[in-house]
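Let's sit down with a protein and look at its sequence and fold side by side. Please make up or recall a protein chain and show it to me in full. Label the sequence line and the structure token line clearly, so we can match residues to local backbone shapes. Go ahead whenever you are ready, and we will take it from there.
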Amino acid sequence: MRQFAGRVVLVTGGNAGIGRATAAEFAKQGARVVVSGRREKEGRGVVAEIEASGGEAIFIKTDVSKESDVKAMIERTLAKFGRLDCAFNNAGIEQALTPLPDQTEETYDQIMDINVKGVWLSLKHEIPAMLKTGGGAVVNNASIAGLLGFATAPIYAASKHAVVGLTKAVALEYAKQNLRVNAVAPGAIETRMFHDFATSPEVKQMLESAHPIGRIGQPEEVASAVVWLCSAGASFVTGQIVAIDGGYTAQ
């Protein structure tokens, strides 16, 4: 079922992990996909995989913390495809677990610039582009850390709480203009970021057992939720934060 045939979808941070899986799933559903990210080699690899499967995609090197980059990303998308229908604002970075007194201003600025400012800038420039062709759908990548507290990772938790707030506020602003804004809140997902965080078998086992379902998630499981939130099947869903977490937040 190619439910996104003729549609144009943008995935920030689309060169790895959840973003990569989501870009591939949108392409499988018939969308023309814009993959953006800071790592050009990996991004072009995603485009090559999509094209090898018969899809259409382009890569745009982008630092979402810079407004000039985000503006150029949207301009290039419109120049290439003529429209923008959906976006998954996925670009983000993690925080190493660190006692509060040892956390640095540099870490704070870096996390907030990418995780919060990057989502805000993306929304700011994506939405006017979508409205030109009658509306669209946006999904932001939050985290269960945007719904709960996480000791020794307060900057990351604060950044993801901010993504939740941005999602709800912007959803309300555009609810009557055929433009929906939602977020996914993943638990632990099998990605490079997860392996950077789970640096020992003991930590990995602890994280697996913390999820009632008894395992960590796969990027494709988050991708499925993102695609659904952008689909006609979710036409009455806006301003929602959908936890993809194996039951973690139900505890």
